Amino acid sequence: MKDRRKRPRQSFLLLTGMALLCVALLVQPLALQGASLQSPTTLRVALGLDLPSAEFAVAEGSYELIDYLTQQVISADSANHQWVVTPVGINNLIVSDNINGQVVSSMGSSTLLLRQKNSSGLNVFSFKNKRYRGDLMIINLQGKIQAINLIDIEQYLYGVVGAEMGQGASLEAYKAQAVVSRTYALFCKENPQLNYDLGINTRWQVYGGYDTELLSNSLVKRAVDDTRGQVIYYDGRLIKAFFHSNSGGYTEACENVWSECLPYLQPVASPEDAMAGQFSTWGGETYSWEKTLTRDELNTQLANSCAEVGKVRSLLVKRLAIDPASGECSTKPTSSGRVTQLDVVGSKGTKSFFKDNIRTILGLKSTLFEIVCDSTVKVWNAFGLADEINNTVDFYGISGDGYKAKLNGNNANYYVLGADGLKTMPKDFSIITFKGKGNGHGLGMSQWGARGMAQNGKNYKSIIEHYYNQGRFDGRLSIGQYRS
């Protein structure tokens, strides 16, 4: 009896294990064969997703093309070869010669690998007219192609640091970027959300591959090599090393931009951001910018963002900080002055947007902005703060004897007495201008601020301490070799 009860359970476990293996093959292909692919510093960078096909070629060095799941060699001599891979169903692949169109292999599996024969030399492949170091994995994922670059993190950084920090920075600024980008990439690797670790755009960090490496100046490669393996720890744990282009003079607390409260993503002054305007037009626009929309353009932009409120009557902003303990709005403004709530009042109702989603909805560079309309006035609220009001059509004035009346009756304009004397104001706006500072979410290191600090003589460790520990030097933040 006892033995009979065991056998069905063992069979169930065996079948369950096989099912789990199939899932692992689909979702985590790097967990399998190949010692180089199991390296703790090998990254999976998605070069292309949901593609109908993938074209690639060997640009330099020596590669072999293999069926990854069976390890069968499809092409042992890949010099000057060009291929196109197309999915068949949801699991299989066809590999064709991209020059003559002949089928090279009809694979009964979902994963193809272009693998370096000798990783100690320079090996480069091309994909989508760009060149990359490392290996290339092609996966049929539910009938669509994923192209994933398998690359050691140090080589990956050669194609990141210059793309992110740009030309003209000093060595210490590049070093700061190298350590921050290395930390960010390895955190993503340790906490995977998908079957790859990183993408190639600003949603992650910009990765331009071997082509960007060649375009970067010599300081970039030196910065990566001089800081090899170094990452940022806070209280002994790898940090989420977020960074941005320009804070506009002050970074922000994480809870006021997204939701999580992190001790190393807290506000700190960044006056060196202002130096962006000294370098170039594009640099200056990251520090100070304007965006002007007509009412119709604003209505269209909100409608395109699925914010159906009808005809926009007013935009109301709040800059109240989030209480880290309760998660609720406090009565204190954000340290940087960033907007944390935007109320769009329209003919069909009011819709509210919060924190970093505000810049996405309106297409703004940051949430550090003021709204200026031809109808804007400021009204003091119960907290002693000034609310910006852009529509006063339904406003009433109350006289000393309690008499209430609309501002200047039903006229389209009314009169305001200010520091500049009496002036006429429209009750409703026709043009709205967002006057802002900064570029990005405002968390962690400001790249322009880092450039400025380096130019002023600060080294990369001081720059990192400033942005991720607010310059406290209390020992909670440390920079050391990566521990996998």
Mean pLDDT: 87
Largest sheet entry: 6 strands, antiparallel
Tell me the span between the first and last alpha carbons.
Answer: 47 Å
**Content-based structural category:** alpha+beta
Radius of gyration: 28 Å
Low-confidence stretches: 1-35
- Assess the beta-strand content as a share of residues: 25-35%
Helix segment tally: 11
Oligomer: single chain
Helix fraction by DSSP (H/I, runs of at least 4): 10-25%
Number of strands: 31
Strand order of the largest sheet: 1-12-11-8-3-4
Tell me the count of domains: 3
What is the 3D shape? elongated
Question: What secondary-structure arrangement, pairings included, does this model have?
Answer:
Layout: H1 2-27, E1 42-51, E2 54-60, E3 63-67, E4 73-75, E5 82-88, E6 92-97, E7 103-107, E8 111-116, E9 124-127, E10 130-133, E11 135-141, E12 144-152, H2 153-158, H3 161-165, H4 171-190, H5 209-215, H6 218-226, E13 230-234, E14 237-238, E15 243-244, H7 281-287, E16 288-294, H8 295-304, E17 312-318, E18 320-322, E19 329-333, E20 341-346, E21 349-354, H9 357-362, E22 369-373, E23 377-380, E24 386-389, E25 396-398, E26 404-406, E27 413-418, E28 421-426, E29 431-437, E30 445-446, H10 447-455, H11 460-469, E31 477-481
Parallel strand pairs: 15-30
Antiparallel strand pairs: 1-12, 2-5, 2-9, 3-4, 3-8, 5-6, 6-7, 8-11, 9-10, 11-12, 13-14, 13-31, 16-29, 17-20, 18-19, 20-21, 22-29, 23-24, 25-26, 27-28
Helix pairs in contact: 4-6, 4-10, 4-11
